[in-house]
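Help!! Second protein's tokens look totally different from the first
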Amino acid sequence: MGLDLGQVVPQIEEMASRLKDGWKEAEARLALALKTLQRHQGAWQGLGEKCQSARTTWLVAGLVEGLGEPHPLPPLPPQFSVLGVDGSQIALDRHMPVRCYLINGGLARLHYGREPSAGLVRRARLFSREEDLVVSDPSGLRAEPVEGALLAARRWLEEVAFLGEALNEEGPFPVLALLDGSLVLWGLAGQACPDFVRQALLDRGLVPILDGMEAMARKGPLALASYISLPRSTDVVNALRVALCPYEPPDCDRHCRGKKDRECNGVTGVEDRALFTLLLKVGERSPLFLTRSSVVEEHYGRHQVFFFYLKGDEEMARVEVPSWVAQRKELVDLAHALVFDQVKRGGGYPVALAEAHEQAVVSAQDREAFWSLVGEVVGYLPSATSQKSQSKRTRWV
């Protein structure tokens, strides 16, 4: 037995005691956030302008449709389709004799209405060419290996491409194209990611796929959305932090560097979902907000990312949509109604995403079988397998 739980028990008890002590303070912060929202709700445009001019060290939502006003659940169309996609991967293993990785995609195609039907598809793709294993600077002087956050980004792009190809086969009736997680590739944000990587994966990878989806949406009602379960975002609460700031315009570095008793600290730690749990009834959504992520502003072109919060029976979810959905009320209503319907049908989580996940998931046995197959097929090639890998595959008494 590798873990001595006896050592962990007192640490868990100390953690529980500390959390209980923080509950009252958390309730006070949430109450202040709600009060601040209600105070600015009637004049949210002014707060939106203040947020736009603010220079903060945290991400602030753009206010475009209001602040806390609930939007009722729209009716379902009589006939519609939902396409959900998910993916998983077998990462490159440096202890293996060959350099490669695999991305497994799962797609659920669900039709509702007069002739309901369902289809499930899975697609496995092996990546082993040099251009698959690294993202290279056009100058040829630098290259980033496709692993970690970069592999996650590559897998997500495969999911979006898979979804785009499937949409080409859909009919003219309303369609919801659904992704799991955020539309924002946060793994490519920040200075740690070279700009040539963002250009390769976003400018030349993601944007053309979104262009194609936008073109389809001009021919018939199509809404692209992503579903985030149990979101930890604070973008809207951060707008309330701006509201509490006494400076005009707010500038964290100039006015509050090193300051511990900042006015905005009164709502620090409050998450958006806690706030909207108090404001929304089941089936309602929040106003639309704009994400002001730098990676989106600089690399998504006209496909800026908007989001709203949606209250289901079991949880508060965050739903993200591109600008060409956000700017058409009928598509926002379509995303709102169909995502909620999917959540209801799935017992708290969109059924299309749950089914897509079942097609995409790669088990530990699948990984072992994959590497065994690779070893059998390329075993005649000169290669080296690490002794660490050999040790893991050997039974010791």
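Here's the second one for comparison:
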Amino acid sequence: MSFDAKKKHSGRHFCVVGVQWGDEGKGKIVDALSSDFDAVVRYQGGANAGHTVLIGEEEFIFHLVPSGILEGKTCVIGNGVVMDVATFIEELDELKARGLDYEDRIWISERAHLVMPYHRVLDRLQDVGSNGARIGTTLRGIGPCYTDKVARRGIRAGDLVDFARFEALLHENVEHFNRVFRDLHGEKELEVAPILAEYREHADRLRDRICNITDLLWEIDGRGEGILFEGAQGALLDIDLGSYPYVTSSNTSFLGLGPGTGFSPRAVGTVAGITKAYTTRVGEGPFPTELDDDLGEELRRAGSEFGATTGRPRRCGWLDLFALRYAIRFGDIDTLVITKLDVLDGFEKLRIGVGYEGIGDIQGGGGSFPADLERELKPIYIDMPGWTEPTANCRKYEDLPIEAQKYLEFIVNATQCPISILSVGKERSQMIRLDPWLGVSGGLPELPVETKIS
């Protein structure tokens, strides 16, 4: 059979995703890349995610609005996002207060589900696992909202346009959840009237921004314009493929783009995975390379590791290449973006996790990232020399200390994934774009046995 049809997809579009446990610095990268595109699309997650962008002396923190708004781009909230409309409106008001025009540039999918007040109450009541340990959610109602979505009783953004439908659904859901609060938890019941009044105001603010974003994205594509897609959180928090049960409630990798927008992932030419030069995690859950000591505190201080959404101190540790390679593989990552390389300036010795005892390691080529992360995992490390020269002013790869170059080359060869961008500070200008990309040069360097540390 011969097939001579014209290729449907140009591959002009781009996707940025985190490949750790979130907080990798995606906001800065999206902001830096958005000037090359016409639209920026958020396709999953909720207000439990935060992007921080520093422009000069001004800091912008976004929870729902794509950071491409700072570049004057069309910004789209996909149907895979769960919307906390009060938080979203606060962000719009903050943009206006700071002199940024967003009119006719922000659009919300009519199919995006809404986080309601009863979801936040339920999140607080349920944030304890069967073993009595906290899951560590942000208590913003994200999980319960996704649960309602799957249970087919969710309220969607489009229901704000048809407010009679919204009112009927609200009465039905509040009645349901009040039974749960009263009978199972002894919790105070919610009243419908104040919720209805609040969301009537929200509807008046947002209804003109609510549309079929799948049609919108295909119109943008049809005009030959480029789209930059951004994921929230990180691949290791993916509901299906992450460190379950210490995960978020959506598909956080590139795999979530299609169902989160109704736009074809096949039209995306490049998927960039964002990773810090070390590893962090907020909240509960496994973290094999965590440094729960003075060194971890030094990393936290140097990297200003506090959550943009919660303000919680992030747990810090060495780079885990075994986990990173796993995220690269299932997330179909084409290239890596390394952030916060400058945070490692001044460390005399660096360690990199290359595997786990009893499971496998990258150097040996074997072993799979485990689905069962409730057990203790002992990392296998290699040591590499650090560097004392500052990297914050480097703008070319050749400007980096030779030890930093070797560190990056080891990451590339260990993961078999090239590096295209390096970030060496908070400012927009503190980036190194590699052209050509730093590519795979062969096998891992020979290392003496004594550098392998359990």
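Reply: Different proteins will give different token patterns, so don't panic. Residues 163-185 form the longest helix (23 residues).
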